Amino acid sequence: VQLVESGGGLVRPGGSLRLSCAASGFTFSSAAMMWHRQAPGKERELVARISSAGGYINYADSVKGRFTISRDNAEKRVYLQMNSMVAEDTAVYYCYVTSYDTWGKGTQVTVSS
């Protein structure tokens, strides 16, 4: 089981980024997927979760209305579209699959002017 995140970087406040997580080694279409993040000095927190078929989605209150999680089961990818970003979104973002208790290595997102 492997998860590989990409798409992080430096963005100005108010800007957008799209993260991608490529999955392999398991039946992706049967697995709920999550994005978490960990800011410096803080605990890792759940950002968004999507069910296996994409019909059930939920978000942390801090990102509701700004972030959108989606998935492409044919491509075995899960995405996180981040809009209207603020400094508090600065963190390492991780992809996670509950069924296999597996984390990606993370991608750094920095929001700064």
Can you give a write-up of this model?
- With 113 residues, the chain is an all-beta fold.
- The chain is built from no helices and eleven strands.
- The protein has strands at 2-6, 9-11, 17-24, 33-38, 45-50, 57-59, 67-72, 77-82, 91-97, 102-103, 107-111.
- The strands form two sheets. Strands 2, 4, 5, 6, 9, 10 and 11 form a seven-stranded mixed β-sheet that branches.
- A hairpin with a 4-residue loop joins strand 7 (67-72) and strand 8.
- It starts with a strand and ends with a strand.
Give the low-pLDDT segments.
none
The separation of the N and C termini measures 37 Å
Mean pLDDT: 97
Any idea what the shape is? Answer: globular
Q: How many strands, which pairing sense, and closed or not: the largest β-sheet?
A: 7 strands, mixed
- The secondary-structure class comes to mainly beta
Query: In DSSP terms, counting alpha (H) and pi (I) runs of 4 or more, how many helices?
Result: 0
Number of β-strand runs:
11
Proportion of strand residues: over 45%
Tell me the radius of gyration: 13 Å
User: Could you state the order of secondary-structure elements as H and E?
Assistant: EEEEEEEEEEE
Helix percent band: under 10%
Highlighted features:
113 residues, mainly beta, 7-stranded mixed sheet, 4-stranded antiparallel sheet, 0% helix
Fold blueprint:
Elements: E1 2-6, E2 9-11, E3 17-24, E4 33-38, E5 45-50, E6 57-59, E7 67-72, E8 77-82, E9 91-97, E10 102-103, E11 107-111
Parallel strand pairs: 2-11
Antiparallel strand pairs: 1-3, 3-8, 4-5, 4-9, 5-6, 7-8, 9-10, 9-11
